[in-house]
Fold these 2 entries.
Entry 1:
Amino acid sequence: MSSIQATRMLTPGPTPIPDRVRLAMAAPLLHHRKDAFKTVLAENQTMLKQLFCTESPVIPLACSGTGGMTAAAFNLFQPGERVLVATAGYFGNRWVDIVTQRGLDPVVLRKNAGESFNPEEIRAMLDADPSIRGVFMQISETSTGVLHPVKEVAAITRDRQVLLVADGISAVSISPTPMDEWGIDCLITGSQKGLMLPPGLAFVALSPRAWRRAEEVRPQCYYFDLVQERASCEKNQTHYTSPISLLVGLHEALTMLLEFGMDNVFKKQWALTQMARTGIAAMGMELFVKEEGRYTWGLTSVRMPDNIPATPVVAKAFKDCGVILTAGQGDLKEKVLRLAHMGWIDWADLAAGLHALAWSLPVKPQGAYIEAALDAYHNALGE
Ligand SMILES: *Cc1c(COP(=O)(O)O)cnc(C)c1O
């Protein structure tokens, strides 16, 4: 069925692309070994460091976010080394798979979906086993909408010979992730979530001690060699052919974010989160993550009632309202519905998302949930 309405991607990747970024990417292709492009890369580097809040280089890789995760596991650890993987969902489980493929020896700290970690439990595990060389975790577990206590874990790892590898793919540019201040050793993100770009780029930044480690470890995979990429980065190049249009789009997206100011970007993300949570609760739906301080700022997950599976609701929201929502992942497929609001999304998009959700339930909720949601949005902005 065709319909006269916009399609709104309220999904945790890909996310909508601003016109400024689309137009920048439509310009004639630059040659990746010529000066004009080197200027783009040099300026990207300055802006990426501001985004990551780090003095270290931020390495762009031509791959999806999972490629960045792979690069981290292969460049920082050698087969046989013991690492701690903290998982509470689909993307945490991906860490288990990746480190296993690298031949590492993972000790897995597993929590139920929707739960987070107690940093003291991680401290106790590191105390109990001094052979653990690294900790892998998500900042934001996108499958559940949980925000993990990475700052607190970094405070534990930074004083030990333990590297903290943080998947910030649905956190960087969405909520604060100051890499150097917190003491994260490896921070990863991707292009298609908070960065307002199409999929296809991952970013990896390493702390000085993680770089020293990367210099000792050989990745044993041809493409993801971070030491080689760093050498090219210092010459304002990428080691292999650059994804030129994406890196030009990145330049525009970073310019926009820094023009807004990251504090304002985070404030907007926070306000959207308050808006979504208030609207969902006002509809009589149950929030999947209830604990204050433990929900991510880029998506809000709803626990579906037992008799209402998520996928028909998602399908109807698209068919009738043009809004793309997302069901759960893995075991949570029918039990969780995710309403994402990351990147180039504003209150009006999110109002459309709340309406689409309500409209698509078997019994449409009554009450002024849109109004309550918008009040929460303005209140969160202090308006
Ligand atoms: C999206 C996402 C990924 C995977 O990224 P791809 O770009 O699909 O490879 C990994 N981790 C988290 C937390 C994500 O949100």
Note: The mean pLDDT is 97.
Entry 2:
Amino acid sequence: MKMKKQNFPFPLFLFFLISSSTFHAIYAGDLIRETCKKCAQRDPNLSYKFCVTSLQAAPKSHCADDLRDLGVISIKLVRRNMTSSRSYIKELLKNKKLEPFVRSCLHDCLDLFSDAISVTKEAMDDFKSKHYDDANIDMSSVMDASTTCEDGFHEKQGLVSPLTKRNNDTFQLTAISLSIINMLRSNYTLLD
Ligand SMILES: *[C@@H]1O[C@H](CO)[C@@H](O)[C@H](O)[C@H]1NC(C)=O
Ligand SMILES: *[C@@H]1O[C@H](CO)[C@@H](O)[C@H](O)[C@H]1NC(C)=O
Ligand SMILES: *[C@@H]1O[C@H](CO)[C@@H](O)[C@H](O)[C@H]1NC(C)=O
Ligand SMILES: *[C@@H]1O[C@H](CO)[C@@H](O)[C@H](O)[C@H]1NC(C)=O
């Protein structure tokens, strides 16, 4: 008699566990799409498709509960992307036959990215402590690093930047972070 009573709640508990995580994933998907829609509306430079693809592919994004979680995820994405670009630049610099102009551009990018990576850490602290104005300044300077790096290569006519795709990715990812920061910033007084 006792056993029967104890057996019953178990599958029920499992059922709720499974369905709540499934619903959570669906909810997070909606949150990403809604956020990206707003981001793309606010920033014409930002592609909706890129935003959704990037955020959905990010680790833990299916657990995101709100805009603040997505903000943290997007700042991490920027940092990871820049760290990877920095390693890639170091690889490129190993090539002894690099044109001196390209080499100097790559060195500039390396410096810019190293600084920017530490700024993303400050941005994360500022974001988490809801200092959205500071987080905005931080991420704006991170965004500048990707454009300044890319522009360097274009100073010499006919030169193809080996970092265009990566810089564009970083630029777009940073635009997502900035957009989220600014959404939260504009509602600052409504938040706790
Ligand atoms: C879009 O990108 C251009 C070129 O980088 C920049 O000058 C402009 O400020 C950007 N617009 C927004 C809304 O971020
Ligand atoms: C950088 O971001 C882009 C866009 O989300 C992605 O396709 C690429 O794989 C990322 N690179 C790294 C190393 O995370
Ligand atoms: C940058 O990436 C976006 C999104 O993937 C794309 O729409 C845009 O054409 C790219 N721009 C450049 C200059 O590659
Ligand atoms: C910010 O305010 C607007 C309009 O008041 C609202 O639609 C939006 O959901 C709010 N965003 C957040 C993150 O609270």
Note: The CA atoms of residues 85 and 166 lie 7 Å apart.
